[in-house]
Amino acid sequence: MSDLDGLRKKIDEIDAAIVELLARRMAVCKEVAGVKAETSTAVMQPQRVREVLSQRRQWAIDRKVDPDFTEQLFRILLAETHRIEIAEVRTEPAPTKTADALRSALDTVACRIDHVVVAVANLAGAIKFLTQLGFKTTPTSDASIVTADAGGVTVVLVGPGDPGVDAHLATHGSGVQHIAIEVLNAGFVQNALATAGVPLLTDVIVDNDGHEQVFTVLDPSTGVQLGFISRTGHRVPISGHNVRALFRALTKP
Question: What CATH number is associated with residue 70?
């Protein structure tokens, strides 16, 4: 435990340094906002965003850090940078924030929306719509399942032709089938939800790629089904097989 305590202390020191660097970065961003305001320069600079993301990905590769993970971090930073540049012109006082928070089990481990699965009666039409919006659509091993990605956003389109999907479409029509939330540990979430009395559709399912997932039943009051996913293997996209397995689980007696 003494070794673990020492390593944790190192992590705390590194994290403190990261927060200090974030403070410095945000301070510079405020200076940038001032220069843009004085020169009537547009806040949003798409070419600069592309350059930053490409360069940071290469830095990550050079340091043997996953570039997809690194890009996610910098997309969050860029979003905060944009917010600061806009917020600097607002005159009302900023709200007071504290570090104290009473966290539920889910609030402790939930990270972000990982992906959204949408069942569609017209797969070709849905692909066309998302492509027009600017999503990159990619076929999976399942001909009726296509992923659509834009930045850090992933939508999984599931077309008809499978009994589970057809049954869902007949009952609910085209629309969101489930929202997948990335969590630190799917098993922890399963236990927490069971303790809270939340009906679960599955136990933790582990696939060959290292995705651990657990699903709730569809909630009749909201029409929402939630999945909780933790990534314990290499960072790879959700496969068509995973999504298909879920719909087949829905049709089991």
Answer: 1.20.59.10
Mean pLDDT (whole number) for 144-173: 93
Q: What is the 3-class SS of 170-211, one letter each residue?
A: HHHCCEEEEEEEEECCHHHHHHHHHHCCCCECCCCEECCCCE
Strands 110-119 and 153-158 come out as parallel
pLDDT band at 164 (very low <50, low <70, confident <90, very high): confident
Structural domain of 7 = 2-87
Q: What is the pLDDT of residues 117-130, one digit of tens each?
A: 999 999 999 999 99
Numbers of helices and strands, H then E, in the chain: 8, 8
Residue 113 and residue 82 share a domain: no
Statement to judge: residues 226 and 111 lie in one domain: yes
